[in-house]
Write a structure and sequence with these properties.
The structure is a single chain. By secondary structure, this protein is mainly α. The chain has one domain (about 1-445). The chain is built from 20 helices and no strands. It has helices spanning about 1-20, 25-40, 45-55, 55-75, 80-90, 95-110, 115-130, 135-145, 160-175, 180-210, 220-230, 235-285, 295-305, 305-330, 330-340, 345-360, 365-380, 385-405, 410-420, 425-445. The longest helix has about 50 residues, at about 235-285.
Length: about 450
């Protein structure tokens, strides 16, 4: 039962430091690591754990995508995408809500920051929703729940931790690893169902509250928005195409020309060069070239250090705790303990979804994926869930649920700020979204829905 004790210590430290003392979450995770070192008396291995945390190649891919998100946000190249979507669907009943779902999911995937995305896109979508009849609490929750889908939609930086968890499981289970492209195709296939779920909920709430379309005066002119921002529509193609080609051609075209090792390393490098190419395209497509001079770009990244450091810090410290837990056999012990529960497939899926939901109230999703990802994949695979599906669902059951479930549901608070909604009403309405998210997670993991790429 020592594994449960160590987990309890980690959760207690994070709760006290983050929730009670209101300190940054990366500090809480680092402090939890130090306390665990003291409790387990493993100070002699501390440099090995630090090396493990810093040597994961996917960590540098995460840095590249976070840097890309800063550039795309600062240059406002994606604002044109939002205007085009709004001009197309704003004229239907609840159009502002549908725009919030689509635009915020796309923006969230690029930035990987739920609260930041709520503040960026919510400044446009929430007032538009309120003007067309959405209650303030509903507008806040539509935006926050759509924004946090970015944690599970490629190319979000949060995805790389799930890929690492699958690679760890595959190595231990003696099964073949998959290409980056293949993994991302499955992630997109999963994401489509959750986007549809949110669209359906917007439709249902629109009928309940008798929401109206946006007025003609409020709608952006489609012809003008296309003329001004058609270049921005190429950005998703530039980001997604390399992964589609990698998934489709990895087993024959690239292997035949580069060999098995060459194709493998090409796949692993896709994450890095896509971020660079997308950033370069953003600089070429932006209208005001004076905004992307070397000096201005350097200032963008300097100003964005505060947004990069916490996310990267949480992952690095999470990897360090993961290495410590691996040394202590915590994950294996936890897996053995849960295996004694003798759950069938549905029981194990419900248990893990419930555990991640509860842990998400206090532990960031990225930390959950890093520390517990491989054992969750093992447990789900043990009851018949495809391990690739289980790994691809980690950003959803950990990252998304963490972001929308209070008290760590920071997106809800960000949405409330813009919508000026009542806390009690917003919290009660948010429970509908949390319940729907939970049900969809169970349906996908049980294999009740067809998934693209599987």
């Amino acid at each position: 039962m020592q594994s449960v004790l160590y987990l309890g210590i980690m959760l207690a430290v994070i709760c006290i430091w983050f929730l009670l003392l209101k300190r940054p979450v990366y500090e809480a995770v680092l402090l939890a690591f130090v306390v665990l070192l003291a409790v387990t008396n493993t100070w002699g291995n501390v440099w090995d754990y630090i090396d493990e945390g810093l040597s994961t190649s996917l960590l540098y891919s995460m840095v590249a995508f976070v840097a890309m998100s800063i550039l795309l946000t600062k240059t406002k190249i994606v604002d044109s995408c939002i205007a085009i979507i709004l001009s197309l669907i704003g004229r239907i009943r609840g159009g502002a809500g549908y725009t919030a779902v689509i635009a915020s999911a796309f923006m969230g995937a690029l930035s990987g920051s739920g609260p930041g995305n709520v503040m960026a896109t919510g400044a446009l979508t929430i007032p538009a929703m309120k003007r067309t009849g959405f209650p303030a609490e509903l507008a806040a929750n539509i935006e926050s729940n759509a924004s946090y889908m970015g944690n599970m939609i490629p190319p979000s930086s949060n995805i790389v931790a799930a890929m690492a968890a699958f690679s760890t499981f595959a190595a231990g289970a003696g099964i073949a690893d998959v290409s980056q492209g293949k993994f991302w195709i499955v992630l997109w296939g999963i994401s489509l169902w959750f986007i549809l779920q949110r669209v359906f909920m917007v439709w249902a709430f629109c009928r309940y509250y008798k929401v109206q379309p946006m007025t003609k005066d409020e709608l952006p002119n489609l012809k003008e928005t296309l003329k001004a921002g058609w270049q921005s529509l190429l950005l998703p193609v530039i980001i997604l195409l390399p992964f589609i080609l990698d998934a489709a051609l990895a087993d024959n075209f690239f292997v035949d020309r580069l060999g098995a090792d060459g194709a493998k390393y090409l796949s692993k490098s896709v994450l890095l060069f896509v971020a660079g190419i997308s950033s370069l395209y953003a600089c070429l497509a932006v209208k005001d070239k004076s905004a992307v001079t070397p000096n201005k770009i350097a200032k963008m990244f300097a100003g964005g250090v505060k947004s990069i450091s916490p996310a990267i810090g949480v992952c690095v410290f999470g990897y360090m705790i993961g290495a410590l837990f691996e040394d202590l056999g915590v994950a294996a012990s936890l897996g053995d303990l849960m295996a004694t529960w003798s759950f069938n497939k549905l029981g194990m899926v419900l248990a893990i979804c419930a555990i991640t939901c509860v842990m998400g109230m206090v532990v960031p999703g990225s930390s959950q994926v890093v520390i517990f990802g491989p054992v969750f994949i093992m447990l789900l695979n043990g009851v018949g869930v495809d391990p690739l599906l289980a790994a691809a669902m980690l950003p959803c059951i950990c990252g998304v649920m963490c972001g929308i479930t209070p008290p760590l549901g920071l997106g809800m608070y960000a949405g409330m700020t813009i919508a000026e909604s009542d806390f009690s009403k917003t919290f009660k309405n948010n429970l509908w979204w949390v319940a729907a998210q939970f049900i969809m997670q169970v349906a996908v993991l049980m294999g009740w829905l067809p998934i693209l790429g599987l």
